[in-house]
């Protein structure tokens, strides 16, 4: 393992722009891009990752926070996807125990048939996980279900089924993968959008990117280029071939975040069939509850998708069928929306029926596009992409190390507080200035974490800190708005910025964060 590069952005930029030929250039710093980058770097390939905005800025920070096999895919009969995802769930828990933990899921039964029906289904789910299964599922009585979930609707309850899946913090896993990539000598740069692909003899030979902070452009040479830009893969494919037909049928998933009082349980609620045929979860996360999600086809992709009023109504209405008291619009502390990069299926098919398998396509000029999939299978996606890329570029054949790779910060420390996500780095963060100074009375975070984010995790903006290094925007958008001025002050100090930059950052962040609040 090589020593990580110094963390200042200027040094990262200098390393990215050096006159060299990279074995692999990865475009995109979300789950699939980071997975591919770690896969390539750990095999010893010289790898550069370029991200247009910030790591996990898009879909990869807006998931339901579950590492799971996908109960719904089992119902659809996609056994191979479920088996693969359950295998990857087990590996991820071993490789990042500071970020992934077991979580019980209660399927509440209100009909005579649902308890045995779902009980059998979950035993199949257990069996597919094999030796990597977390804990066996089991039937629970009415009394046990109500003891586990005191706010569950009592009328008509007949008991339930308890099964286990994994839970994680998505953008913290992204940052952990970034740090792991750097540990293995990889070079990564955020705010570095790729603006063109260079070709030699009709084959891709590199990329050009712009440094958003200075406006300066750079050209880099590459033996192979991986397009892992999630819902934006089609725009990169069009850089390669203006006639490329779109691959994706994107859909959006909405989540609302409410206080723990509405679901004061250590287990999550899983509703196996909502009125629109989806699965809905209420998941305890960072002392809040995340409720979602929806599946609405969207005609075009955007960086900041917004929930439709009917999606919010649907989530709250479904929650009210299972929770008493039930949250109302006034109780929602944040709303966030993720776009799914679903690969086009047959004409007119429903987005919730489209496969979540990942897809790799290689263009005539050699651009490798990786899309589809989900966080749980990020490692397998990266392995498959790098296997194909290495063949394409005639790189020396090397076996994957990632199935047993301990990710940066690996720690089995059982601490239950918010510091746990830093793993073995927690003590270093707590040794920094401001480790005992809260950012806001309604948030669990400390000022030292802003300094750490700037120094060690490539945070460049207030949004990078409050949305993805810390999860304040998703937990309580209003409190994050109130914390923004102090975060800007701390960041300015770390990054050498002036008062005008601070003021612009606060205004930008507060405008963005208002979109996570429900209108009164």
TrEMBL record:
Obligatory cofactor(s): FAD
What Pfam families does the record tag this protein with?
A: DAO, DAO_C
Q: Which InterPro entries match?
A: DAO_C (IPR031656), DAO_C_sf (IPR038299), FAD-dep_OxRdtase (IPR006076), FAD/NAD-bd_sf (IPR036188), G3P_DH_FAD-dep (IPR000447)
Q: Per the UniProt entry, what is one GO biological process? A: glycerol-3-phosphate catabolic process
Give the keywords, sorted: FAD, Flavoprotein, Glycerol metabolism, Oxidoreductase
Tell me one GO molecular function of this protein: glycerol-3-phosphate dehydrogenase (quinone) activity
Report the residue ranges that make up the FAD dependent oxidoreductase domain in this protein.
Answer: 23-378
Q: Where is the Alpha-glycerophosphate oxidase C-terminal domain?
A: 389-500
Q: Which PANTHER family match?
A: ANAEROBIC GLYCEROL-3-PHOSPHATE DEHYDROGENASE SUBUNIT A, GLYCEROL-3-PHOSPHATE DEHYDROGENASE
* Family, per entry: Belongs to the FAD-dependent glycerol-3-phosphate dehydrogenase family.
Per its record, how is this protein called by name? Answer: Glycerol-3-phosphate dehydrogenase/oxidase
